[in-house]
Every structure is written in C-alpha cells, then in structure tokens.
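#help-structures

NK: newbie question. if I give both the sequence and a SMILES, will the prediction place the ligand too? trying with magnesium ion
OV: yes, paste both and it writes out the complex. here, I ran yours:
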Amino acid sequence: MKKTIYIDMDDVLCDFTKRRGEMLYKNPVMSYPQSQYGFYENLEPILGGINAMVYFLTDSSYDPYILTAPSVLNPLCYTEKRVWVEKYLGMEYVNRLIISPNKSLLKGDYLIDDCREGRGQEHFEGKLIHFGSDVFPDWQTTIKYFESKHT
Ligand SMILES: [Mg+2]
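OV: that's the protein plus ligand as structure tokens.
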C-alpha cells in the first residue's frame, strides 16, 4: 500500500519568505506583497525541493500530492500556483495539485509543511513533518528520513 504524502508549497517548495522580504525592502509600506499580481508565479524554488518531488514520484512507496492553502487576498494566486507547478514540476504534479484552506480535510500518511497550525495542519490525521524545524531543517534531511523508512 502506497503512503499518501502531501507537500506544502510556500517555504517548502517555493521561497515565499525571500520574495516577500525583497518586495518589502523595495516598498516598506506595502502590507501584503503576496497580494500583488505575479507574486506566486515568480517565487524561486527551495533548494532540493524539485529533486525531492521527483524522488516521491518515482519511488513506488509513495503517492505524492501538493497541498497548499490559498492567499485569499490575491485571487490570482490560484492560477499562479498552478502555473508555478507546471513550470518547475510538470503536468504530472499539476494533476496532483490541491488548493485547500483546511489541510486536515485530506486523508493521508504524511504532511510536509513549514507551519504546525493555522491551515488545519494541527488536525491532520497523519504525521506532520515540520519542514524548517530543527529535526527537518531542509530537503536533504527530510529525504534521508523517508529513504530510511524502507531500507
Ligand atoms: Mg508553507
């Protein structure tokens, strides 16, 4: 039985914090840079994230999906997230893209997310892999954890 694994986008696959910081530096009075057109489409990939997604897709132990919450202040984010996924991960992952404001509604074994709570992460039925924490600081460490699960 394959393990269903959900992977968050912002600050897990794409560098939300970096771009937000750059935009605030240029325009400090802008309260919500993430509400701007083009914000989500132009995020840089997080180091190792693309390779990790290839790993999850090619390893027969896993059934991976992208699970991201929308920025409701930016209606275009729904489209831009979809465009980003095709650009960096291809159509296979476009077909595995889920945009949900409540991540606890999805059934599965793992959720890799940089936030412990706020979008239903705290009620997710499987194991929360807290990306960016001391235990899972980056993709290298995170992939090692999953590789060790079946060796
Ligand atoms: Mg996130």
